[in-house]
Design a protein that fits this description.
Elements: E1 4-8, E2 16-19, E3 22-25, H1 32-41, E4 46-50, H2 62-74, E5 82-86, H3 92-102, E6 109-113, H4 126-139, E7 144-150, E8 156-160, E9 183-186, E10 189-192, H5 201-205, E11 220-224, E12 243-247, H6 263-273, E13 276-282, H7 295-298, E14 300-303, H8 307-320, H9 324-329
Helix pairs in contact: 1-4, 3-8
Length: 338
């Protein structure tokens, strides 16, 4: 162990302060987060700090993500046991999933940490999430991209970044798809979650092929299925996307009857414009409902990955000029749950 960790600060709530009912970013030359961590947990580790960005994550643009990625690329991995990236919670899921792909072959752990409340708020778990990341990095001898996050009244969980799904509404709590987290911090130690469907430490140690897709393209429209969804309002007369993604119901279905709400009519419209349509997510092990029969033959289907990961893969494929279908079928960092 080198007892040295590189910390990349990018802003977010974990880098903000409270001012009455407002939360906003704070510039700092010395990290309040590391200071609070050392006060609570001691400090026998050297932390080197980088600050490529200071932004609220809801405002992140592709250029900001490229700055973050370049910062990770520029770190001399031989000098560190791991890298910690601080990030806002609003778009944590997207960035984590993205980095799990573009850094799928990284040789040291990269761990994202965030907080639902600023560090000067007693409800904040930012320090605990940071401590979980440190403990995890100290405990493993393999690379990959992970997320350290403590929900209310739970131990701090370590998630595979490729399986993190969007935060729960209102509460902001995070889970992995199928609620299979990679491990957790118990009494100051990392414990691997030994369940079916979770990769083993031995699998994490295996060499992975680098990701060819490294650039994003924003020419994508996403639609979430809901009752009485009127597809007729999606008409691309002024600006035409390269692809459309439709998030299906949990059972892999969407309305295929009627007129305005009929997804098959929307598919015909998109096909007439040369727009690729992707449906997600579909469980390959589940029975198919009669309403969904034949849908994968009419469009591109994403099997056994989260909608969040499917979105990342489509944006990477569009940005890198690669096949969307091939990207969705590729399992780079254990994103496939079947």
């Amino acid at each position: 162990m080198k007892k040295r960790i590189c910390v990349i600060f990018t802003g977010g709530t974990i880098g903000s302060r409270s001012n009455g009912n407002t939360v906003d970013l704070k510039d700092e030359s010395k990290s309040f987060l590391i200071e609070k961590y050392c006060e609570k947990f001691g400090c026998d580790i050297t932390f080197d700090e980088l600050r490529p960005l200071n932004i609220l994550s809801e405002n992140v643009q592709p250029a900001h993500l490229e700055i973050m990625a370049d910062c990770v690329r520029g770190v001399d991995k031989s000098k560190y046991d791991g890298i910690i990236v601080t990030h806002g919670t609003d778009t944590l899921c997207f960035t984590a999933n993205l980095f799990s792909q573009i850094f799928c072959d990284i040789q040291i752990p990269v761990v994202f940490v965030s907080a639902l409340y600023p560090l000067d708020d007693n409800r904040s778990k930012g320090v605990e999430n940071f401590a979980g990341a440190v403990t995890f990095i100290e405990s493993v001898d393999y690379g990959g991209v992970f997320v350290s996050f403590e929900n209310f009244n739970e131990n701090c969980k370590i998630h595979l970044a490729s399986r993190l799904i969007s935060a729960a509404q209102i509460s902001g709590e995070y889970e992995s798809i199928l609620k299979i987290h990679y491990g957790e911090i118990v009494d100051g130690k990392f414990v691997h979650n030994c369940v079916i469907g979770n990769p083993t430490p031995e699998q994490l140690k295996l060499t992975r092929k680098p990701c060819k897709a490294q650039k994003l393209c924003m020419d994508l429209v996403t639609i979430q299925a809901h009752s009485l969804l009127n597809f007729d309002f999606y008409r691309f007369t002024t600006v035409k996307p390269k692809a459309v993604m439709v998030q299906l119901y949990h059972s892999g279905t969407v309305c295929t009857e009627g007129k305005e709400a009929n997804f098959k009519n929307f598919l015909k419209y998109c096909k007439s414009l040369g727009i690729e349509v992707v449906i997600s997510t579909i469980d390959s092990a589940a029975r198919t409902y009669s309403s969904a029969l034949g849908l994968p033959d009419l469009c591109t289907a994403a099997y056994d990955i989260s909608f969040e990961m499917a979105t990342v893969k489509v944006l990477l494929a569009l940005g890198s000029g690669l096949s969307i279908q091939e990207e969705l079928a590729t399992n780079r960092f254990f994103e496939k749950v079947r």
